[in-house]
Amino acid sequence: MTATPTSSSRSYPAGGEAFPHKDLIGIAPLAPWQILYLLDEAEQWVKLNRSPLKHNDALAGLTIINAFFENSTRTLLSFEIAGKRLGADVVNMHAATSSVKKGETLIDTATTLNAMRADAIVIRHASSGATQLIADKVACPVLNAGDGQHEHPTQALLDALTLRDWLRSGACPVAKEEFVGLKIVICGDIRHSRVARSNILLLTALGAEVRVCAPPALMPYDIERMRVTPFTDFNQAIDGVDVVMMLRIQMERMSGPFIPSAREYRHLFGLTPERLKLAAPHALVMHPGPMNRGVEIDSSVADMLERSAITRQVEMGVALRMACLDVLTRRVRGVEGWGAPL
Amino acid sequence: MTATPTSSSRSYPAGGEAFPHKDLIGIAPLAPWQILYLLDEAEQWVKLNRSPLKHNDALAGLTIINAFFENSTRTLLSFEIAGKRLGADVVNMHAATSSVKKGETLIDTATTLNAMRADAIVIRHASSGATQLIADKVACPVLNAGDGQHEHPTQALLDALTLRDWLRSGACPVAKEEFVGLKIVICGDIRHSRVARSNILLLTALGAEVRVCAPPALMPYDIERMRVTPFTDFNQAIDGVDVVMMLRIQMERMSGPFIPSAREYRHLFGLTPERLKLAAPHALVMHPGPMNRGVEIDSSVADMLERSAITRQVEMGVALRMACLDVLTRRVRGVEGWGAPL
Amino acid sequence: MTATPTSSSRSYPAGGEAFPHKDLIGIAPLAPWQILYLLDEAEQWVKLNRSPLKHNDALAGLTIINAFFENSTRTLLSFEIAGKRLGADVVNMHAATSSVKKGETLIDTATTLNAMRADAIVIRHASSGATQLIADKVACPVLNAGDGQHEHPTQALLDALTLRDWLRSGACPVAKEEFVGLKIVICGDIRHSRVARSNILLLTALGAEVRVCAPPALMPYDIERMRVTPFTDFNQAIDGVDVVMMLRIQMERMSGPFIPSAREYRHLFGLTPERLKLAAPHALVMHPGPMNRGVEIDSSVADMLERSAITRQVEMGVALRMACLDVLTRRVRGVEGWGAPL
């Protein structure tokens, strides 16, 4: 690999080489220029999706299996639309009612999907590491759509795509195009959140300054090892940031040992209009959805036309997933090499 | 709009204008000529569906999302087949297992579907008005596949298509082609039925004489405001009618305050062969399905080859839904204007 | 029909005639040359599925409905991929949540699917005979994807395709290409297994020597009427066989009247490495999946690279189902007549 990343990490290797990963398991294995390459590739699909006839036959003839062992309407819809818009034959395996329930091992399921000659498998699973386990057993690319408390790489990538789009619009006086120097706070259940984990990895890799904020019981034990600044006081954490990224609080955490009550949580960690005023005046609001309105985020904030990027995140999600499916299936399609940098 | 409906309501506006509704929420907002236009448009799809290769690429490149918040195998199948036969990328959102369960608001779900750049959204929901709520929030056409006790417009339109096909066959000596003068009785749970509501609106708009028949507890309070004649005695209601439209009785109504028992219901409101003899000798039998055989309709009536239109209703359903999807997505496809009247 | 089967049953009727069955309900109605014809037809799809772009538009424009009244992830996936790879419009009817639950009869469901103008219906149902019942009511081909304890014909056909592929590889010194003289033991719940039933019918029709092995309580009462040799001692049954076909033990049989415990079952009827040594040294291991590892089959046997055909069975399944869908829909597509024998 003759990768020649510049200081801005925006150069690709000299021509003719393929994307160096078979799978997309997480952000951790990606070099900064690989992250940026996926974002650049997504731009064309953002444009396509905004055109009247939003279909391309790049993946025609390929079979994509969405194997969701954990329910997720949004992410499944997003991947399904991405695959179909690229012309692939897309099938969903609803694993909640699958042979897994009949006692089959995960590896046997993986071997089965491989034997059916899938060209890409998208996996969501409640166990951290399940996606890697499957990727090791199958010949085709595996895309992680969220595994346990490990990673959710397409979420972090779509968040970055949304952020970069905002930076390029000039709305942020601090950073223009570059993530270097951008101040971001991620607030919520940092400890159990794969969205937080993938976003921390991606944002720090691109040079952003990341703060995390959580109740003490929801802060990871090994937070010291991450290149972030931890806070337990949201008012301090949000002070002067350019981006506020809220996490969804799982219902099951909203009582018992972690959080006394939803009301208490909103009081201390909810994004209210008052609290948003502590951030920079141009600060962008993000949330991976689905939102608990009135808990981690107030409706008046979520619906701010100029400030909230929540709907744009969903839009970027389809485009980003199209890019990942396209790039990772190039080998099987005989379409090797990098496209020209945008 | 230079609409010039004739007495028979069968003329379209002078050329070049688009169908004047973004959505299909109900029959209520439709002018008679708009109803007839949708029926006319469906004719070509009836023909296509009867041909060996029943596929057309009119909607190729478009994304249709079927968001069913209430289970319905038939209607979902019908819409899914309609969309796929027209070449669209069709995805189903099984809302029973969706983020809605995670506490997401209906409007947030709608905004999400919109952000994924759907070109048409088909909604079924247990709450009256849910479809309108979503339609107001999204840019693309929304088709109501049944919302609470409000409307089920494609059912009424497919019933009308079935009826018109029968009238044109000459089987009815009273009316030929025209709905004017046609005597129809709708029998069942008029009060809670969106099928009844949409059919009453459509049939009276086209000039049919509509009688409704229900047990007193299942008759709407505001029946006086509808242009129908209410009956509580089915033997009187069915007397001399050209068409008998039976409604499905929901299991949950079959005990308790509404109906003493299924047996009692059949005795008083079931369509038995004896009771059918009270209708006109040529009378057509309709039912939206699925049937409770032996409750609201006897098997010997449901299976009458010459009299029962129940299977044809299913067939017309696919064609009619193809017409609605085609007409409502013309704007996004840049296919404006009316086709020549058939 | 001018069928002229030779001793090897490998000739087709003189040209120009269509496959003589509308449906594929079971192996029982098929003549040996019809079985072989389906296997021959599958070869081209095996090749296609191993190529980079595994798509063909043979069934473009056709509507295939997968109506699964019983959950089955693998078989549904296999049929769905088969249909989509052939370019058909494929829709799944998840009957677990269907109108059937609302009290609709199976025949009414069949009539509905027929009225929607399906070109092929794939049925899985918990009741023996349900598929035939539906096939009698609909105009289009019906494919049995497993009905009660009756038949599972595509499983037997894919097993035969896997076996023939192995025979042709020369790995079996006894039989080459031909099933005549091949010694096969089928072990497991012979009494309740549709897989066993279809395989016994197919393998004996092609001239293989079939042994069956089961605990006494899981042996069919009418085993004498089948052309097989029954055993209750697996060590005797497996002695010198060329092929060991294990059946999946249903969890619900693993206690109570049939089997004392999973551990006991493994001890007496599980395929352990020691027991496999009693078979011929070249013996092939088969299992329809999903496996209960450590119960009916040990992991060390299931994963033997040279001996286990389990993964290949899955691969052959997609190709075989493509062949069945292709052959049975030729009439509607106007593609009559036999292809040239391979």
What does this protein structure show overall?
Three copies of one chain form a homotrimer. Chain A is built from twelve helices and nine strands. With about 350 residues, chain A is an alpha/beta fold. Chain A folds into two domains: about 30-150 and about 315-335, Rossmann fold (3-Layer(aba) Sandwich), CATH 3.40.50.1370; about 155-310, Rossmann fold, CATH 3.40.50.1370. In chain A, helix 2 (about 75-85) links the parallel strand 1 and strand 2 (about 90-95). In chain A, helix 2 (about 75-85) crosses helix 11 (about 310-330) and helix 5 packs across helix 6. The longest helix of chain A has 19 residues, at about 30-50. Chain A is globular. The relative contact order of chain A is 0.16. Residues about 1-10 of chain A have low confidence and may be disordered. Chains in contact: A-B, A-C, B-C.
